[in-house]
């Protein structure tokens, strides 16, 4: 049944040998300055059998980066340190795109010398932010001014240019999970009454303008976008998700991006997502390019959704943490190795729980 996952697919300009995509996974193994480290080369190369790797979310600017030891792509040092990572993936036969990340109101002032984070409007996320000093209450964001929007778009453009210098095969715009672009999309966090607020056309304006900038740098066929057309995500929600995500799909269809990824977790998923009607059928009726679905899939479920035509490929997240050879395990029907020391091993620095998971052959030998 899983044979369908091993059919090649064209994800825009990227020829993927299978339909098992590695989803973006924040792992916190960069330096404190956002510079990628040597163990990241090993980590990504171990997983190069994926049809495509989408990198962990990577900060486009100091303003947008607010996760301890997450990588960035706005400085020369960060860009240079990404080069050995992409080279390692390519040497192992893989393909990798960089996910561009601005966290918006989720950035804690600790990362901004005490200044408030920015967002669509002056709102405050629920819960706590992660900082090197532990969890801290989120702060109220300040609304981005109209005269700041060109600079923000330039920040995305600068990061995309650096991603090209670093040797990536493309870029993905992170427009999901309650981060900045998502904060502009949804009317629970976008309270603006200017050109970036109110109507669905206005609330998708930033998504369109940033994606257009990425297209001018990379070409449409090497740009992808991630959306999360589910319920509440880190306090970001919308009163009419079908309307806003349908419009987002129309925007991306018009730009002819390489592929679209949708994260649709069930209840209790990461970021507090709630169970709501799925929007992928609506989006699929509007966006005609390759559609990648994500979240909590088994191999059989992935194969069923590709077979039915609901999706063209499936991105796996957590299973890739403890299964560097996830593709081979799916191919032969082997069990997935469980994650251990969760969630500590997801984010703690060092090799443990990061690059020390054995591949299937090694695990069998040990057994």
Structure description:
With 367 residues, the chain is an alpha/beta fold. Helix content is 33%, strand content 16%. It contains 13 helices and 14 strands. It has helices spanning 38-46, 76-91, 149-165, 180-185, 200-203, 205-218, 241-255, 280-286, 299-308, 318-322, 326-332, 344-347, 360-366, and strands at residues 9-11, 14-16, 20-22, 52-59, 96-101, 118-119, 128-131, 134-137, 142-143, 171-174, 223-227, 259-263, 291-294, 313-316. The chain has an eight-stranded parallel β-barrel with strand order 3-4-5-10-11-12-13-14, surrounded by four helices. A two-stranded antiparallel ribbon has the order 1-2. The model has no long low-confidence stretch (mean pLDDT 94).
Strand line-up of the largest beta sheet: 3-4-5-10-11-12-13-14
Structural class: alpha/beta
The number of helical segments is 13
Rough outline: globular
Which assembly state applies to the chains in this document? single chain
Q: Strand-and-helix sequence, N→C?
A: EEEHEHEEEEEHEHHHEHEHEHEHHHH
The overall pLDDT, averaged over residues, is 94
Distance between the termini: 28 Å
Give a brief outline of the structure:
By secondary structure, this protein is of the alpha/beta class. It contains 13 helices and 14 strands. The strands form four sheets. Strands 3-4-5-10-11-12-13-14 form an eight-stranded parallel barrel, surrounded by four helices. It has a two-stranded antiparallel sheet with strand order 1-2.
């Amino acid at each position: 049944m899983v044979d369908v996952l091993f059919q090649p697919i064209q994800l825009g300009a990227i020829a993927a040998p299978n339909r098992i995509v590695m989803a973006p996974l924040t792992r916190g193994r960069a330096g404190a300055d956002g510079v990628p480290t040597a163990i990241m080369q090993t980590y990504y190369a171990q997983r190069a059998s994926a049809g495509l790797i989408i990198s962990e979310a990577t900060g486009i600017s100091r303003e947008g980066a607010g996760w301890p030891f997450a990588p960035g792509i706005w400085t020369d040092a960060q860009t240079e340190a990404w080069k050995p990572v992409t080279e390692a993936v390519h040497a192992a036969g893989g393909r990798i795109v960089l996910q561009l990340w601005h966290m918006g109101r989720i950035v804690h002032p600790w990362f901004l010398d005490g200044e408030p984070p920015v967002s669509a409007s002056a709102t405050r996320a629920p819960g706590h932010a992660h900082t090197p000093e532990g969890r801290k209450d989120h702060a109220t964001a300040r609304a981005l001014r109209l005269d700041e929007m060109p600079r923000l778009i330039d920040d995305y453009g600068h990061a995309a240019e650096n991603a090209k210098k670093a040797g990536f095969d493309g870029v993905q715009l992170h427009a999901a999970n309650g981060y900045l672009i998502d904060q502009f999309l949804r009317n629970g966090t976008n309270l603006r009454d200017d050109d970036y607020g109110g109507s669905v056309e206005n609330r998708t304006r930033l998504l369109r303008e940033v994606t257009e900038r990425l297209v001018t740098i990379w070409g449409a066929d090497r740009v992808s976008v991630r959306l999360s057309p589910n319920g509440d995500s880190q306090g970001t929600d919308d009163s009419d998700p079908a309307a806003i995500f349908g419009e987002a799909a129309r925007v991306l269809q018009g730009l002819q991006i390489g592929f679209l990824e949708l994260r649709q977790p069930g209840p209790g998923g990461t970021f507090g997502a709630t169970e709501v009607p799925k929007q992928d059928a609506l989006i699929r009726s509007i966006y005609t390019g390759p559609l990648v679905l994500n979240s909590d899939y088994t191999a059989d479920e992935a194969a069923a959704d590709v077979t039915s035509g609901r999706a063209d490929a499936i991105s796996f997240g957590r299973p890739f943490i403890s299964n560097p050879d996830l593709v081979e395990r799916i191919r032969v029907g082997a069990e997935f190795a469980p994650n251990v020391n969760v969630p500590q091993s997801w984010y703690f620095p060092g090799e443990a729980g990061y690059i020390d998971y054995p591949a299937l052959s090694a695990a069998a030998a040990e057994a």
